[in-house]
């Protein structure tokens, strides 16, 4: 019998979603009270990985409407974490660029969560850790679909 017919992909999807959701909540809880917001981390992370981008590109990468990021982008700019400039190829377009302060804030935020996760991984076997590394790469691929 084919896996689809047995309902395995749905059961697997539910189990993966549950685990990913619970881990995401736990990682958020590991952040300090003055940490960046989730939306700020998302924007800074996009600029860190992909380089200067238009606000529309940042919103699309996060599957959000541009209007929902307007305040976040303004706050990041006020805090000196991103800069806005006119696109050299199309003066009508604005490009967002991660500043060195923005990169430092993002790296500090990631380091805080990575420290908690590294400590938690200490209770796992090497094989379990490698399975989670593979799962992390696969989840990255899924997130880009």
Structure at a glance:
The protein is built from seven helices and two strands, in the order αααααββαα. It has 145 residues and is mainly alpha-helical. Helix 3 (38-50) packs across helix 6 (100-121) and helix 4 (55-61) crosses helix 5 (66-78).
What's the topology here?
Layout: H1 3-6, H2 8-29, H3 38-50, H4 55-61, H5 66-78, E1 82-86, E2 94-98, H6 100-121, H7 126-143
Protein described:
The structure is a single chain. With 145 residues, this protein is mainly α. A hairpin with a 7-residue loop joins strand 1 (82-86) and strand 2 (94-98). It has helices at 3-6, 8-29, 38-50, 55-61, 66-78, 100-121, 126-143, and strands spanning 82-86, 94-98. It folds into two domains: 1-30; 35-143, Orthogonal Bundle (Arc Repressor Mutant, subunit A). Helix 3 (38-50) packs across helix 6 and helix 4 crosses helix 5. The radius of gyration is 18 Å and the shape is globular. A two-stranded antiparallel sheet has the order 1-2. It has seven helices and two strands; from the N terminus they run αααααββαα.
Keywords:
about 140 residues, mainly alpha, about 70% helix, 2 strands, Arc Repressor Mutant, subunit A
């Amino acid at each position: 019998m084919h896996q689809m017919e047995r309902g395995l992909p749905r059961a697997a999807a539910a189990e993966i979603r549950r685990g990913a959701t619970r881990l995401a909540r736990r990682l958020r809880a590991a952040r300090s009270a003055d940490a960046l917001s989730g939306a700020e981390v998302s924007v800074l992370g996009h600029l860190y990985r992909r380089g200067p981008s238009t606000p529309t590109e940042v919103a699309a990468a996060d599957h959000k409407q541009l209007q929902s990021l307007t305040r976040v982008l303004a706050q990041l700019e006020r805090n000196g974490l991103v800069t806005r400039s006119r696109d050299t190829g199309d003066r009508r377009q604005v490009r967002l660029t991660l500043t060195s302060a923005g990169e430092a804030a993002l790296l500090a935020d990631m380091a805080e969560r990575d420290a908690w996760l590294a400590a938690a991984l200490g209770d796992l076997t090497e094989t379990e850790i490698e399975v989670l590394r593979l799962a992390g790469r696969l989840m990255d691929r899924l997130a880009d679909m």
